[in-house]
Structures are given as C-alpha cells and as structure tokens.
TrEMBL record:
One BP term from GO: prenylated protein catabolic process
Location of the Prenylcysteine lyase domain: 148-509
Organism of this sequence: Aureobasidium subglaciale (strain EXF-2481) (Aureobasidium pullulans var. subglaciale)
InterPro entries, alphabetized: FAD/NAD-bd_sf, Prenylcys_lyase, Prenylcysteine_Oxase1
Keywords noted in UniProt: FAD, Flavoprotein, Glycoprotein, Oxidoreductase, Signal
Cited SUPFAM superfamilies: FAD/NAD(P)-binding domain
Name of this protein: Prenylcysteine lyase domain-containing protein
Signal peptide start and end residues: 1-22
Amino acid sequence: MKVQHVSVAVLWLAHVPRGIAALDQVILKDASVTPRAPKNVAIIGAGSAGSSTAYFLRKYSKQRDIPLNITVYERDGHIGGRSTTVGVYGDDQNPVELGASIFVEVNQNLVNAAREFNLSTSGIRELHSEGPALGIWNGREFVYTQASGGSWRDTAKLFWKYGLAPLKTVNLMKATVGKFLKMYEEPYFPWKSLSQVAYDLGLTDATAFTGEQFLEKNGIGKLFAQDIIQASTRVNYAQNLPLIHGLESMVCMATDGAQAIEGGNWQIFSHMLAAAEANVYLNRTVDKVSKLDESAYVISSKGTPIDSEQQVFDEVVLAGPYQYSNIDFDPEPRHLPDSIPYVQLHVTLFTSKHKLSPGAFNLPSDELVPQVVLTTLPPGEHHGNGAEGVGSPGFFSISLLRPSMDTRGNRDKLEYVYKVFSPMPLNETFIANILGLAKDESVSEEDVSWMYRKVWHSYPYEYPRVTFEELQLDDGLWYTAGIESFISTMETSSLMGKNIARLMVDGWKE
C-alpha cells in the first residue's frame, strides 16, 4: 500500500466542527510532496500504429496517474497513413477509400474504437444488379462466380466443385485466428518479443510455410487453394500462394463482419489522437533522432509552421517502416530492422458511364460482368511476384464501387466509380479493353471523366519466416512496423501500438 504524507493542517480541519470548517474551504497541501514530472513521448507517424500508440499510452497512463505529454509527427498532410480517402471528382463530400478499405468483426481494437467514438459503420455493399456480385477470373475464364448476397446455389456450387475444401478452410482459419486472438490477452499480453509470442502460440507453424504448403499440409485441395484462396491473397496482398506465408493466407479468409467507417476509416485514428490529447504536427518531417543519453532523445524536424525545430523527449516511437523513414539516427540503434521488400501497388480510381465489357472477359455479349472481379492464375502458369506474378490476367482486382452523379458544370449524369489494383500503371489500351471501347483510339473524357492514381508501398512481401523484428531498437526507442511481415493490417498495426504503449507504461511504474 502506498503511504502518503498528510499535513497537520489537513488533519486539524478534519476534526473541526462542520460549521467552523465551512467558513474556510482552503486545504493546505503538504509542501513535501513533489509533483511527478511528466513523461514526454514522441511518435513518428500518424497511421494506425502511431495513433493507437498515443491512444493507449494516454489510457494506460491515466489508469496509473502518470502525467504525460504526447507529440505526434506526420510528414503527410493527413491522419491515417495508408488509410485515406479521395473525393470522387475532387469532391470531399463524395469520398472513396484509396488505401486500407475494410476491417472485420474479430478486429477488436478497430471495432471497439468505432463503438467508443460513435462512428457509423457500413458493411460491404453490393450494387443492385442482375449480374453476379463476384467473379474470379484467371485470364481465360471465370472459375467461380457468386450472386448478390450469396445463395444456397452458390454454396452447393462450391461443394460440388471443391468437395470439403471450403469447410476445411473455414475450420483452419478459425483455429489459426483463435491462436492470434490470444495475443490480446494475459498471460501473453503484453509481449516483449513478437518472435517469442508467435512461437508460444504456435503461429510460427503457419508463418514457416508458404500458403501453398500450409494448405496442402492441412488437407485442403489444390484446386480450391488456387481458385479461391489465391484470389483472396492477390486482392489483399498482391501475392500468390507459393510465396506468401500460411498465416497471412488464413488472415485473407477471415472476412466475417467486413465493414468500413462511413466517410473513411481514417476517422478512427483521428479520434484516437484527439482522445490521446496529443500535439499533432502534420506536414512535418522528422529528419534526425539524436540520443543524448539513456533517458533522452532530441528530435529534429522540418515543416510548417516552423521551418526547423528541435525537441527533447524521454522516449520515441517509430510508427512506420524504418527503411522508408529517411531519418538519420545518431547513433545508429543497437537493433537495426531488416530491409525487406514491399509491394509497389498501383491503385487507380476512375469514373465512366460504361459498365465492364463482357468481351474483355471472354463472355457472350448478353452476359453481365461481375461487379467485383478478383483474379488468380490459370493452371501451370508461373508464380512470381510483382509485375511478373500478376500473370495473364494483368491486374489483381477490379471493383465497380458504386454509381455516382457527376454534377460538375451542371453535367448531372450518372456514372460508375471503379477501383483497380495492379502492379503497373494502367494504360489506355487496358482501360479501353475493359470498357469495350475502340483500342486504337485514346480514351476520351466522355468515356472516362475523372481519374486518380496512387502508388503505395502497401505491405511487405510476406515470405515465410519464424523470427520478427525487435520491439525496442534501443533504450527508449520503440518500433511498430516489425509486425507487418507477420500480419499486415490496420488492426495488427493498432495491436502493436497498444502492446508497445503497455510495455512503455509498465516501465514507468517503478
């Protein structure tokens, strides 16, 4: 039990008759009690990991009555990192997700935050269309299609073609995700080593193998793996089963309760930073982190409103990949993260009055193309990565997101909003082909009225591995992005932020 010194004056007031005490409400504090100096923490990056670190730091420090100042540096002009929206036609009132698009019901941090901040969520919407909602295209034919909302016919079709593989996959996914969810709970949480907790929970049994090997090891047929599961790893991670590890392959199949925040998922992280009472500096680049001693760091940054600035902090969190930070660390941290290859994903948004052309997918002219087209590879085709790995389909996915009214210049015409994931920029020939336009002519503004392109270093190539980066690169220097080669999602980045926040505050309670 913690014993506090109480001044004689306060004890005396406690024994004064109520009427007398009421005459003087001044309580004299013990001058011998020294207020605890606040901890000063810098977080570099305002994405899921950085925002979650700040949010849980504030929560845990309040529980233990530890004064805290949090400063967040973000080199971009928005909160959310890879979770960001773009206004269709440049209209911010008509947003569409450009990066991380959905989260699912097992994503505890995001689901709880959405509820706490009273943010409206919506499920994955399907257009009311007579055609299929989903199709998986291998560059030659659709190997699977699914009607809007699913049906017993779709279920029967799956089991007729793939036997018990769909059921086995669901059971394997649930068992694997069940192990992962223990990372949120005692005695595993908080974990000081991602490598150790992954081993302790048996998750390295999945990360040690490719998705192809892991599925075969668990008795899941190759046809279902290639047609269905690989389509999911391609749309989620732009990677094929013979290269992506087994754990990430299972994460791709955990789709129950898929949802998004109305207006953009970035709002979760904006609310987290507000709840953290953090000082947030957008458009501010950290260019140097200097270690003064075991208990202090100096951060040098540039941007608005002050061109150059230095601040001193007790601890620093690097909430983004070390290799893309372009920060000069002086001295170099004791533990340097591996420089690992990241996917270079091209995201293209565009609007058109045209629907997808049946001819582009070898369909009869009177058939409708599915609203969402995922891709896999035809049997026997080489499985690489990047531009090579995309194979004969030429893209990873095409989604007809929704209709949208183009009101610019009083046009008042209804168009469709499309989103395409690809390993290379889309050229006019590709766009003309999928829209059924003449290939020998340039695509006019009449056919594609608005377009937005973005290239992301979206996630690592999830190659099999059994060890992961250190959480502490040095004394007082923390690192969140090591979890990305384990599982790369908004939720796991948030979990790493929560875990580091807890470890940090546990270190302060002495």
